[in-house]
Every structure is written in C-alpha cells, then in structure tokens.
Amino acid sequence: MEVLEDAIEHTKSHFEHAQRAQELITCLCDDETLEKMQAVKQLGVILDEYQEQSHLLDPYLEGFVQPVMANIRRDILKTLCIDALLPLFRFLYLLTKTRGYKTVVKFMSHDVSDLEPVYDFLSEMDASSFEQWEARYICFVWLSLICMIPFDLYKVDRGDTETPLVEKLLLLCKVYLKSTGKERDGASVLVARLLSRRDVSHDHLIPYITWCRQQLDANDDVFEATGILSSLCGIYQVTSRETLLPTLDEYLIPMLTSPLFDKYDNNAVIRKLRTKLNQRVGIAYLKPKIATWRYHRGNRSLRTNLGDAPDATVENLDPGLASQIHDDDYDISENVETIIDLLLNGLRDKDTIVRWSAAKGIGRITQRLPELLAQDVVTSLLGLFEENTFFDAKEHLDMTAVSDHTWHGVSLAIGELARRGLLLPQHLEQTIYWVNFAIKFDLKKGSHSIGAHVRDAACYVCWSFARAYAPEIMAPFVHKLAPSLITASVFDREVNVRRASSAAFQENVGRQGIFPMGIDIIQLADYFSVGNRNNTFLHVAVEIAKIQCYRYHMIGHLVQVTSKHWDKTMRVLASKALSRMVPLDPVYFIQNTIPAVTPLATVKDIQIAHGAILCLSEICLALYKCRQQDPSLEALWQANNVLQKSLAKIVQACPPKSLTTFGSEHIREAICQLVGNLAQTKLVVCDNVLESWKQVVQSSLERKEENVQRCAVDAFASVTQSYGINATEFGMYLKMVEVSHMMYSRRGYALALGTINYNQTNRHPWLHDVIHSLGLASKVQTDHHTNDAEAKRNAIFGLHEILMKVDDNTMVQGITEDDHMYIIATLENCLKDYSADQRGDVGSWVRTASMRCLGYYIPRIAQLWKTLTSPVLVTRIFAAIMKQSVERIDRVRQLGGSVLQSLLWTPNLTIAHVHELQKLIPTDLDFGSASDLYPVMVQILDFSEYRIELLTGLITSAGAITESLMRYASSSLMDYIRTLPVSNDGVNVSVEELMQTWAVVFMKYEKQDRVTLPLLDTLGQLYEFGIASTVCSPTIHHQLYSCVHKECFRTKNIKKLLSVIKVYVGFLALPSDIPTKTKSLQKLLSYLMHAYPRVRMEVADQLFGYMSLLGEKSNDLELLEAEEIITSTDWSLDISSIKPIRDRLYHLLDIPKPAITKKLL
User: Fold this and answer.
1) Which of 229, 248, 400, 1140 is the most buried (most CB within 10 A)?
2) Can you give the pLDDT at residue 319?
3) How far apart are alpha carbons 137 and 744 in whole angstroms?
4) So which domain of life are we looking at (predicted)?
C-alpha cells in the first residue's frame, strides 16, 4: 500500500506549473530582462518533473512556443548577436527533450520567407562552439519543417550565389552529420525531409546515397556513420515508395550486404541503425497494403468483448482499400528474402536495441507479404527456437546450449506477429509449446544465471495473445498458459518479470475471460503485490494455491525449478512457500512431493541438494503440525515406514565432499535444519542414524560461519530435547569451550550449552560446571589469539539462555549462592571488556551481551533471592551500566539506557539515590541523542557512588571521533563543572572533589590509551578554560602532574605527546608558589629537545602563547628576549644546533635546569 500511495502521490493530473512557466517565458521574451538564463534554468527544473508525463504539456505548447519563435524570427532578421538568442533556443531544446521534437516542431513558424534567413543564421554559427549547440539543433529542426512548404524550392531561392539553396542545405547537413552532438540528429531529420520532396529527390537522392556509401567506405568515423545511417533511415521512412524503388537494387542492397559494416561490429547503435534501415528498405519493396489473410479478432472494445463478440473474421475493410485485398499476385523482389534473412540474423544480436528493431521490422514486413511467404517467415522464426536444443535420455528438452539472445529476439518477433494478427491460429499450438519454455527460461552461467529478458519477452507474447485472438481460439491452450503465467507472476526472481507476467495474466483475464478464477487472482497478484518477492512467495502464492487447478502446478514448479535455483534466497523462499502450502493438501505431499524430492537431497550438485534438503525440512515440520490435528493423516504417515527411513538416512547418504568443499556451508545449514525439524517431529530413528545426526551437528558447531553455527545450535537443541543427552556427552561439550580449543568450536559449543534443558533434577549438578565453564570462556585473555570476541560474546549468550530457561525452582535449588555470585562477578567483568582488533571495539559485543543478561537476571534474582542483591552490589552494577549508557558507541548507549531505566523502576532493588535518579532520568530520554543525553547525565556526578564510572564514560565520549558526540559530551561536562563551587561546601560536589576523581580515574586507567587520550584532552580544556587552575590544593595538581608524567614517559605516540603538552601549558596558569608550575615549565623546555620536530614546534608555539600573555602584564626584558628566541628559532633543525639556544631559555625564564642523575651500575 505504501508503494501504491507513493506512486499516486507522484502522478500528476495536469500541468501544475502552467502559470509559473508562462511568467518565466514572458520574462524570457522581454528584451529588458537581464536574468534570462536564470529563467531558463527554472523552466528546466519545471519541465524535468514532467518527463514521465509529458503529454500534460500539450494544451500549453502553442502558447509556450509561438512567442519564443516570434522573438527568434524578429531577432534573426535583425541579425543580432547569437548570444542574445541562446536562452530562447535553450528553452526550445528543453521542450523537445521533454515532449519530443515531432510534437514541438508543429508549433514553429513555417513561412517561405523564413527559409533563407534561418539557413544563413545557421551557416554563420561557429560549428565548434559548445555554447551554441542547442541553437544549431533547433535551427535544423526548424528548417526540416520550413523545407516542407508546398512550393518548388528552386523557385523560392533568391539566387544570390551560383550554388542553389538546396545544395547549400545538403552541404551544411553533410558537415553536421559527423558532429558528436545533438546537431547530428537535427541534420539527419533535415536531410530526410529535403530528399523526400519530389523536386529535390529527382536530382539529389541517388547522389546523396552514393556519397553515403563513399563516406562509409572511406573512413571509420563512428559519429559520421551514425549520422549517415540515421539520415538514410529517415529518408526511407518519409519518402514515397515510387521515388525509392529505383535506389533499392542498385544502391541500398549492395550497401546493406557489403562487409563495410564489419568494422562497426562492436557498436550497438550502428548495428541498430543498420537493422532499422534493413526493415525500411524491405517495406519499400512491398506495396503498402493490409494482408487479406491475417487473423482478425473483430471489435477490440472491452465493452463489446464482455458482451456478444463477433466471430473472428477477416477484417472488414472500407471501400477505398478493397481494391488492395486481391493483389497478392504482384512480383516480389528476391531481395526481400535477403532483407528478411538480415532481420532474422538481427534477432540473434547481442544487444537488445538491435533485436527489438529486428523484431519490429519482421512484423512490419510480414504484414505486407502474401500468405505463403508470411507463413515461411513464421516457420523460420519458430525454427530458431529449436537451435541447439535436443532431448536427453529421459526425453527432457535440453536447452543448455541455446542462445538467450536468439530466444529473446524470437520472442519479441512472435509477440509482434501475434499483436498484428499475422500468427495464424494453426501455429498457436507449436508457438505456445515454445513460449512455455521461454517463460521459465533460465540458463546457469557460473555462479549466476541469465534469461530474465527472455522471460519478460515471453510475457509480452502472452500479452499479445490476449489482444489478438478470440476466446474460443485460446481456450484449448488455457490449461498450459494460465499456470505458467501464474508461476512466473509469483515465483520469478526478477520483479520486472513478475510484473510483466501479472500484466499478461490480467490482460488475458480481461480480454479472454476464460482463465479459471481470473478475477480473484488478479486481485491477489496485482502490480504492487508482486513487487515484493517475500510477499509473493509467502502470501500471494499461498492464497492462489488454494485454487486447486493451479495448486499442483505451483508445487511442481517450486520443487522442480525454484528449489534448484542458483540464488540461495530463492531456494529458501521455495522451501518456506512449500511449508505454507502443506496444509492445503498434506496427503499429496506425503504421497508425491516427499518421494520426488528425497532422491535429490543426496545428489552431488550442491545447489540442487541444498534446495531439496530445505524443502524436505520445511515440509516435514509442516506435516508434523498437520498430523497433530488429523489422526487419519498421522495413521497414513506411520504406515509409510519406507518414507520415514529414507528421510532419516539422508544425512548418512549425503556425499562427504558436500560437507567440506567450497560452498559446503549451505549444505550444512540445510542438513542442520533438516536434523532439527526431524527431531522436532519425534521421528523414530536407530542409534547409528542418531549418531550420524549428532556428528554432523557437532562438526557444524565447529565451523567458522556464524550462520552455520546458528543452524547447528538450533539442531542441537532439538536433538537434545527429543532424544536426550548423557553425562559423558555433556562433559565433552564442556571441554569444547575451554580456552585451549579452537575459537570456532568455543563459539558454537558456548551457544549449544545454553540450549540444554537443566530443569530436570538429575541435571541440576551440571549447572555448576556449565556456569563456571561459560564464565571462564567469557574472560579476557592475555594472548590475543585466544582472546576471541565472538567466543566471549557467545559464552554470555549461552549463560543468558540458561538463566532464561531455568524455572524458579531450579534458579533457587539448582544454582547455589556461590554460583549466583560467580554469575554476577562474570557479568561485571564483561562490562570491562574493551578488547579491540582491526574491526574496532569488538569488546562492545561482550558488553552488550552482558548488559542484556544483567537486565534480565538482576530483577529476577532480586525477586527470588533478595539477600543476593545487596544495596552495595546493585549500586555497583548500576554504576557500571551507567558508564555504558554514556559511552561513545550509539547502540551501546541505547542498550545501556534501556537496561538502566528498567533497573531504575524495578521495585525489589535498592539503588542509591533511586528517587533522585528517577527524577533526573525521564522514561522518554533518548540515549541515542547526544544533545538530549549528556546535559542530563552530567548531573548524576553529584552522587559519589556513581562518580568514577560515570566520569570515565563521559571522558571517553568527550574524546570520541564523532564530532557531534564529542561536542555535546565535552560542552555538557564543562558547563556542569563551571556551576560547581571550587571547594567543598558540605552540600554540593566541588571542583576539588571532581579533580580528585579525575586523578583517581587517571591512575586507574594508566597506560590505557582508550581512556587516557580523551582524559588528557579534557584535562587540558579544564586548565585552558581556567576551571582547574582555581583549585588551591597543590596535592591535587601534583597528583595530576605525576599521572601525566608517567603516562607520557618514553612514549612515541605523537597524539598523546601533543595532548600532554597542552596539559603542561595548562599547569603554567597555576600560581607561582605551586611547584607543579615550575616542573611543567621544565618539562616543556625539555621537550624543545624532543626527537620529533613536530613536538618541538608545538612546544614552541604553546610557549610563545604563554609568554605573550605574560608580556601583556609586564615589560621584563628577559621575558621579551625569551619570546624573541622562541619565535626566531627554527626548532625543526638538528638538536645539537638548537640545544645552546634552549639552554639560554632556562636563564631567561629563571627556571633551574634539571640535573641529570646517572644510574648506578
């Protein structure tokens, strides 16, 4: 419905911009207006909106064109500068681009007096000027209209020169036929119109054709060849047949059959123009008459067809054409056969535009042929379908060697013949036989297939049948045609084919009225409903399958065609569609479908086997649901032991190579799904079959593909649920999640352990082992090879799954208090996982999994075992989640915020300052919006219980890469700190306390760049803004100085060094009696000798800024000298040369030079 509403919204009913367009045209024609080009641009924008509905312009074209033409005529006579007319010509070109030149040219002036002035104007233009191409094109189109005046062109020639006007026009056209722009098309139109005149063609037609042949032979200019062929096509379209006949045998046929076109084999446009010229020459050979033998349905009115339609007869002709009916005996040139042969070859061309032109040409020529020759053409066309086809040993038609180009071209030609009534009813049976194959045409080419264009053309043929033939003619073929169109409408991969097939079906329903349940089906499978592939397979197809006459054809198509499709998505959809069709006739599926599909499941072709296994999997599960509701169906199923055994042994019979070779992941997914669904149906199997199932599931759990592991986990759950699990197997599975095993097996088995049912009393002891095993698997490992993010995440997923599945009794009785505390400790530790690799912060996967688990586990355990959730523990967990809710990754923040709000309003939890937090954090707070989030969350820094964790999260966000996130986090933090008192007033948090917390965070995350880099940046801002320098406690500044010194000790990280320099410069704002200031200045001066020139220059810049501020307060000469040294020295020079200069700064700034202490050996 959304697509339909969108389409209606963008469909216009009239020219909405008529008034505005008229105002702009008035502005364009006003000589006093200077903004003409701006008006043209606005008109271009308006016209572009009507490119798809250009007919809406028709009522206004005359009013648009005539005032513009009047201005152009006037100014041409005045011989004004061409630049003044460019906006007018550009507007006319925009009209032709939108509506087409044939429509627009009708409204141009065509007075005799315009001919020579327009020619003179055009000939004086600079052919190389890019700005004037629209003017040249419009002038050519205009001349093509003027030259059709009903007067002898030689008599209207002023005769100012020895060369006649006609020859000058032709010479000018020949010049522009080689143009690379639009002028070439205009010149082609003018040549065609000129040479179509009897007074011009007599003297100039044959010389022009001779010139064309000479030019094509002489050079390889593609643009000139295109122009020449376009002009010839135009000539042979508009010139009378009597004029053209003398040129055909002697000039055109030799040209068309000569090898000169071989050099243009790779140019589709030239091949198309050659094909078009072929058909125009062929039409010129034949008299313009209506074939007396063609099939005519009668009145084409839908209203009449719904009533009593007349019988199909030969068309009733008016008396004026009656004399043409019986003149089939005139001689037809043998060259017509040559032309038809060229067009038949054109149907094989590799480009669609050439094939389509050839198809139309065959239709037009056949319409003028006698019946006998026309039927030869039809026979030749149908023979092209048989090229490279043969029947295999099973009498199936093998089409692997056919050409999709040929089938597409022939389908288009057949559609053209049918539409024109030239395909007689006696050919319909053979034609529909091949069209049914064309509707399903799909040739596999490597990892994909081709044939969508063939299927689309086949739908066009079916559409043509509906318009061409009477219902009684089509009635014998409905049982073949209707199911084929239905399957294409709902099961084709390409949306354009589905829509084309739906349109063909709808046309047949409307015009034939004999398709079973046609009205009901077109209401289901309309243009919009078939646009979505999932919808057509899973909804539309199922609804149509309720109609019995289509059901079994659709099931057969899914089994024999779609389930073998090269696209995996199609095979999956086929299996799901079959699953939904099972309830319509479950007996048919038991007796026919499953026996037909089962052998395909063990073939070596991976695509066929994958589709068959998926289909069996879905069908068996759907049948199980039907069997539970129908005892008779259950009896039928149980009586068929052979079928059950064949299903159970599929896994054993599957070729081993299919499970290991390239693409085996698809087979493993399907087999795991089959095993899982068969296990759900409680299929009785022997021990060796069950063991083979377990082996394939276990080996799939160790695969690296996550989709295979997911299917294996589902199968593992179904098998253990239906057939049980013993302690030995459980112990083996526990060992597979140990760190010593491969990471892929750890990932799979961690998820699998979560699917086991631990509520059975005899399995309670297993809970301790599995909780500790998964807890160990979720820990961060020091070895990066074993520190696998997916394995840790899956361990938490498995733990979460266990906690969700165990009932309240097992939660209390089966899991001890120590195990509960271990679970909480594990989840807390996972919130600290910030592992990173080339993919980024992969630790966030573990943190999000942990938060989801905590969000479920903490409220439940608080309800069942309140002593476990002490206020201190809950507050600590709440603080850790609060940290995640303000971090830099959006999805982590959003999940953290969701869990935070859930815990905040849980009644059984005791959270510190819960009432204040409930007021501060509204339930509708968007944690994904940085602008809304950070101004709220910084206020929670008032509470000491959350301060360290929250401040850490805010600091990391303030150093984020995302500019908006960094800006909001940093500004919110700074604005909050500005509102705080400097020292403790006993009521609110002070700047001193916050700076102390800053130092604590710094020491906690020492050498962890993830935190320390943004911490250094924000600390530098605090000193830069004068916030931190208000703190009077030397101890705090000394702590921060010590942390900064340790952090940058021997570091080679340029980014960190630059941040450290800004912090040291910030320390310089402290009072002189605080030792940190002197130490910071010493460090900055020592950095002037740093190994990296960039660091030295950054220090120099920062020191200059600091000294400039000092210089404003005092006129100390030594300070001025130091400032001069800083600015005049090139600090990128060699260290040995600048060391004496640096040492001079110690004296000038009255700073003791640090003493170098030698280490004792």
Assistant:
1) 229
2) 41
3) 68
4) Eukaryota
Instruction: State the burial class of residue 142 (Cβ atoms within 10 Å of its Cβ: 0-12, 13-18, 19+).
Output: buried
Check residue 779 and give left, alpha or beta (phi > 0: left; psi -120 to 50: alpha).
beta
Q: What share of the chain is helix, strand, coil (3-state, %, to 5)?
A: 70, 0, 30
Q: Which of 1082, 1088, 1129, 1127 is nearest to 1107 (CA)?
A: 1127
Nearest to 940 by CA among 874, 882, 876: 882
d(CA 1106, CA 1029) in angstroms, rounded, equals: 15
CA-closest candidate to residue 600, choices 567, 571, 641: 571
Task: Extract the tokens encoding 16.
Answer: 């909405």
Whole-angstrom distance, CA of residue 438 vs CA of residue 430: 13
Backbone angles phi, psi at 892, to 5 degrees: -70, -45
Other CB atoms within 10 Å distance of the CB of residue 1085 = 19
Q: What are phi and psi of 1100, to 5 degrees?
A: -60, -45
How far apart (Å, rounded) are the C-alpha atoms in residues 410 and 416? 10
Own/partner contacts of 1081-1085, CB < 8 Å, gap of 24 or more, are: 1081/1149, 1081/1151, 1082/1151, 1082/1152, 1082/1153, 1082/1154, 1083/1045, 1085/1142, 1085/1145, 1085/1146, 1085/1149, 1085/1151
Dihedral sign (CA 511, 517, 520, 524) = negative
Q: Where are the domains of the chain?
A: 1-108, 392-406+418-546, 725-867, 870-979, 988-1160
Q: Is 402 helix (H, G, I), strand (E, B) or coil?
A: coil
pLDDT of the residue at 1043 = 93
Give me the pLDDT at residue 315, please.
45
Which amino acid, one-letter code, is at 290? I
Report the pLDDT value the prediction gives residue 448, as an integer from 0 to 100.
80
Q: For the chain, what is the radius of gyration of the CA atoms?
A: 43
Please report which residue ranges of 959-1092 form alpha helices under DSSP H. 963-978, 991-1004, 1009-1024, 1034-1048, 1054-1067, 1075-1087
DSSP 8-state code for residue 1060: H
Cα 396 from Cα 280, distance rounded (Å):
41
**Contact, 233 vs 187, CB < 8 A?**
no
Q: Report the 10 Å Cβ neighbour count for 399.
A: 19
Long-range contacts of range 965-971, CB-CB < 8 Å, 24 or more positions apart?
965/888, 965/930, 968/930, 968/931, 968/933, 968/934, 968/935, 969/886, 969/930, 969/934, 970/1018, 970/1021
Return the amino acid letter for 108.
Answer: M
Tell me if 304 sits within 8 A of 385, measured CB to CB: no
State the chain's mean pLDDT as an integer.
89
- Please list the ranges in the chain whose pLDDT falls under 50: 1-5, 8, 306, 308-327, 1159-1161
Q: Which pairing describes strands 443-445 and 397-398: parallel, antiparallel, or unpaired?
A: unpaired
Buried b (16+ CB within 10 A) or exposed e, 402-421: bbbbbbbbbbbbbbbbbbbb
Report how far apart, in Å, the C-alpha atoms of 968 and of each of 395, 883, 973, 976, 1024 are: 73, 16, 8, 12, 18
Contact 1088, 1126 (CB under 8 A): no
DSSP state of 398: E
Alpha helices, H only, 582-663: 586-588, 594-597, 606-629, 631-639, 641-648, 650-653
Determine the pLDDT at residue 809: 92
State the DSSP string of 895-942: HHHHHHHHHHT-TT---TTHHHHHHHS-TT--TT-HHHHHHHHGGGGG
Q: 630's torsion region: left (phi>0), alpha (psi -120 to 50) or beta?
A: beta
Tokens in use for 558?
Answer: 């899914």
Q: What is the largest CA-CA distance in the chain?
A: 126
pLDDT of residue 598: 95
Specify the pTM.
0.84
Q: Which residues contact 1015 (CB under 8 A, 6 or more apart)?
A: 955, 959, 998, 1001, 1002, 1005
Q: For residue 895, what pLDDT is reported?
A: 95
Looking at residue 317, its pLDDT comes to: 41
